[in-house]
Structures are given as C-alpha cells and as structure tokens.
Amino acid sequence: xxxxxxxxxxxxxxxxxxxxxxxxxxxxxxxxxxxxxxxxxxxxxxxxxxxxxxxxxxxxxxxxxxxxxxxxxxxxxxxxxxxxxxxxxxxxxxxxxxxxxxxxxxxxxxxxxxxxxxxxxxxxxxxxxxxxxxxxxxxxxxxxxxxxxxxxxxxxxxxxxxxxxxxxxxxxxxxxxxxxxxxxxxxxxxxxxxxxxxxxxxxxxxxxxxxxxxxxxxxxxxxxxxxxxxxxxxxxxxxxxxxxxxxxxxxxxxxxxxxxxxxxxxxxxxxxxxxxxxxxxx
Length: 282
Fold this sequence. Notes:
By secondary structure, this protein is α/β, with parallel strands linked by helices. The protein has helices at residues 35-49, 59-64, 66-74, 94-112, 133-139, 195-200, 203-215, 240-247, 250-263, 269-276, and strands spanning 4-10, 54-57, 78-81, 118-119, 144-145, 166-170, 173-177, 183-185, 188-190, 221-224, 266-267. The chain has a single domain, classed as Alpha-Beta Barrel (TIM Barrel). The protein contains ten helices and eleven strands. The strands form three sheets. Strands 1, 2, 3, 10 and 11 form a five-stranded parallel beta sheet that branches. Strand 4, helix 5 and strand 5 (144-145) form a beta-alpha-beta unit. Helix 4 packs parallel to helix 5 (133-139).
C-alpha cells in the first residue's frame, strides 16, 4: 500500500492566521509558550507507534527552542522549514518572501549541522497571485514544497487538477510539489486530512477517505499542529465562525492521530522521496 505522509507544523498556540486577536510578532516573546510540551507529546506519539514524520519548524520557534529541532532529528524525524515570521505568502513581496524562506533554512541548518530540503508556507497561502513563489523557493535553496492547497480555502488555495506530487520547472531549477491531499466528493475537491478538517470529521470518515486516496496510488498528506493536542491552551479573540474552525474537536485530536499511526503505514517526505524516487511524479 502507498504510505501516508504525516507532518507537524511546529508553531505555538498564538500563531493562528487571519484573526484580529493574533498578536504581532513583536509581542510573541511576552506570551506564555506551550510549544515545547505539546511538540514533545507529538514526538512521544511517534515513538510509541514507531513512526517518523516531517516537522515543519517555524523559524521563530526554532530560534527560541533549538534543542527541539535537534531532538526531533535525534528521534528520527525529518526537519523542514515553515518559514520564519509566519506571514501569509500573498501578503509578502517576492523579495520579502525570499528573505524569510532563506533565513529560516539557514537557521535550521545551523542548528542541525545538516541540510534542510523542504518548505511549507503559512496557511497554505500560495495563490494565483503569487506566481513567483516557486522560483523564489528554489533560489532560497529548497528542493520540495508542500504549500499548495488544490481547493478553495480561507487563505486562498490554488485550484487545479493535479492532486498528486508533481515537479515544477522554474528559472532557478526544479521543485517537487506535494500538494495537500484532497479527494473528489460530489464533483468537488474536499480535504479530510489535517487541521480543522481532521478535527471536525469523524475518524471513520477520515479512515475511509484515506483508504480511497491510497488505493488510487497517491500518498495522503496529513498535517497537524502542536496546539491541536492541547485542548486547554489559551484562546485568541475571533468571531464565532473562526472560533469554531480553530478550536472544534481539540479533545479528540490526539486519539485520531494515534489511530492514524496504527491504521496506516506512516512516513516522512524524506523517506518517501528516498523510497519512491521519481516514480511518484505526475
């Protein structure tokens, strides 16, 4: 069976995008962090199940908790980049994005003493208005990306008919794209495999949709955040709609992750690329 790729976006409880209550970067150091304990719970879940995942570290978090980066690698997980300042891609200029992506990679590589190959943009915020994104990412030294959400979503999304991994040719070189997994339901692409989608839908439905995608010969890409297995973390001010999306299903998330680890073969992007080479590309 095609494996599933499990990913963790390593950020803190106050890094929710697009709400009025999200504090500015200058305020983050004054807030109580919960990322260390929550991320270690993820690592423990992986150890208990014997799985290795990909950890997309926000550079700001890595700079303050470099030992978490090293611990993730020491426990067999892949370290990748979530950028540095957690700004939506389409809110940055091409030059700003390049500097942010490069800063994060160099920081992580300095902490690790090794190379960092992968990137994921905050909020999957690659859109038709950011055509420069892929070239800037290659120029910043990355080999693969998992920022494209091939359906409509709050932070944009990039609609298209390419649901499996594919290669993008840019003027600076090639980039492997691993779009977030969607599957067609009543003729429309739907996601069941991460964040609020995974928290909201019952596990029986998530499992059925996961099996469907794997049987089609595509890897399922799961994604989660440390705060999502911490139901008692502080809440940000936001409207009722966003509050529901941000906080629904927190108490059941850890149990769902345990079941995913039990029910499916789990791997990281690094291991997937090593095992499948170029055979998986569209």
